[in-house]
Amino acid sequence: MSNSIKHLAVIMDGNGRWAKSKGMARVKGHEKGAEVVREITTFCSNHKEIETLTLYAFSTENWKRPKLEVDFLMKLLNRYLKKELDTYNKNGVKFETIGDLAPFSKQLKETITKTKEATKDNSKLTQVLALNYGAQDEIVRAVNSLIDKNREITIDTLSNALDTPYKDIDLLIRTSGEIRLSNFLLWQVAYSEFYFTNTLWPDFNSSELSAILENFNLRERKYGSI
Ligand code: FPP
Hints:
Mean pLDDT: 95
Distance between the termini: 16 Å
CATH architecture: 3-Layer(aba) Sandwich
Order of helices and strands: EHHEHEHEHHEEH
Radius of gyration: 17 Å
Bound molecules: farnesyl diphosphate
Helix content: 40-55%
CATH superfamily: Decaprenyl diphosphate synthase-like
Oligomer: single chain
């Protein structure tokens, strides 16, 4: 049996614990985590089936972290996007985001817009970063936009009003041993397969992802039928 995998989503968790276990500052875990983002994105861009990779990079709740850590994450993201542009283009990766970008700095918003514009014609993989993203917030914004337009609320109209391109997720992976969704893509995981690994995100790599994809291939997906 082989399942088709078009949309992979990942909750990248465990950066802080990884750094702590090595006696380093939490932010070092985020730095190493960014390198893993690069490796996994490259792997997915070379995978013949995966069309979309959605990564939970910053949640609506992450603002509660110490200001120093939030500032570091913002700078890291800005640096990452600038540095990554050539690799995005070399690997055919189109960059997109989900979430409400309004609270981000002008500088980061500009980098995001430029990266989207410069990669918009790439077609091997769409990398979607969830930034200031929360699924409940996404659903509420979508319902309100339908109400504003006086549209009927159905599964189709609501699905189409959400932020997420290529909505249905085939497989959702969470690293670091936590078994919860943390407000990520609640609507889009209706029929997803889930995989929880104890590996901390900075230790995750493409060979573990390959093994997870093999496990996914053995799953029987029934979508409610028998
Ligand atoms: C969870 O680890 C990770 C985050 C909240 C941020 C994710 C960010 C990255 C992977 C690096 C930067 C991303 C890009 C796209 C350049 P945690 O800090 O909650 O870890 P903990 O649970 O061990 O404390």
